[in-house]
């Protein structure tokens, strides 16, 4: 058995409910490997980025429900940016750029008033 041999497959299911204008009215998801999640779980937004093996392009699916408030979107982006900075460091060990990203996340949090200024 080689290290790259697939020994298991798992599915992530995403269900989008659209209104008459084709705008997302509901988003729900579940993952096969989550034993605590037997049914679809509702959410208000999702950002999915996929890196294409052949073209080396990033493919994106960005959706949010029409009832998502701007303050919720601010918090969603703040948390996503913070996680991306952490993931970037784990993947590259580039502390300088990861730190630069974290400084921007701090600025973003302060500008959106998620964080107190100067925290």
Number of discrete domains:
2
Strand order of the largest sheet: 1-2-3
Contiguous low-pLDDT stretches (5 residues minimum) are none
Secondary structure: number of strands: 5
Helix content: 25-40%
Strand content: 25-35%
- Major pleated sheet: 3 strands, antiparallel
Mean pLDDT figure: 95
Silhouette: globular
* Topology pattern, helix = H, strand = E: EEEEEHH
- Radius of gyration from the alpha-carbon trace, in angstroms: 18 Å
Number of helix segments?
2
Distance between the termini: 51 Å
Indicate the structural class: alpha+beta
Main features:
2 domains, two-stranded antiparallel sheet, three-stranded antiparallel β-sheet, 2 helices, 119 residues, single chain, globular, alpha+beta, 5 strands
């Amino acid at each position: 058995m080689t290290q790259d041999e697939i020994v298991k497959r798992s599915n992530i299911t995403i269900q989008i409910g659209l209104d008459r204008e084709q705008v997302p009215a509901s988003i729900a998801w579940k993952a096969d490997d989550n034993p605590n999640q037997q049914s679809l779980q509702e959410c208000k937004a999702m950002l999915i980025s996929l890196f294409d093996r052949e073209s080396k392009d990033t493919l994106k699916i960005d959706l949010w429900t029409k009832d998502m408030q701007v303050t919720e979107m601010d918090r969603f982006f703040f948390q996503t940016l913070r996680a991306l900075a952490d993931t970037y460091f784990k993947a590259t060990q580039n502390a300088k750029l990861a730190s630069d990203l974290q400084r921007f996340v701090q600025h973003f949090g302060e500008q959106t008033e998620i964080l107190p200024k100067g925290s």
